[in-house]
Design goal:
about 20% helix, 1 helix, alpha+beta, 4-stranded antiparallel beta sheet
Length: about 70
């Protein structure tokens, strides 16, 4: 993530996450990007998405595209 500083993001855990830390994902906002990480490894890898990519992903989730 060149040019990004994930430690500056305001991280938020999904209200759908369980109390089990093994199942938590956090999202945050940095300048123009939405960033995500595994909450049990806050210093680990971070994925960055442009707002339009993130919006499309959320729309797919809400539409059931990833339901099994």
């Amino acid at each position: 993530m060149s040019g990004h500083f994930p430690e500056r993001a305001r991280w938020r855990k999904s209200s759908y996450s369980t109390q089990d830390p093994a199942e938590c994902v956090e999202a945050g906002r940095l300048a123009r990007d939405v960033v995500t990480r595994d909450s049990k490894d806050p210093s680990g890898p971070v994925l960055a998405f442009e707002p339009r990519e993130w919006a499309a992903f959320l729309s797919e989730i809400k539409g059931g595209a990833y339901d099994s």
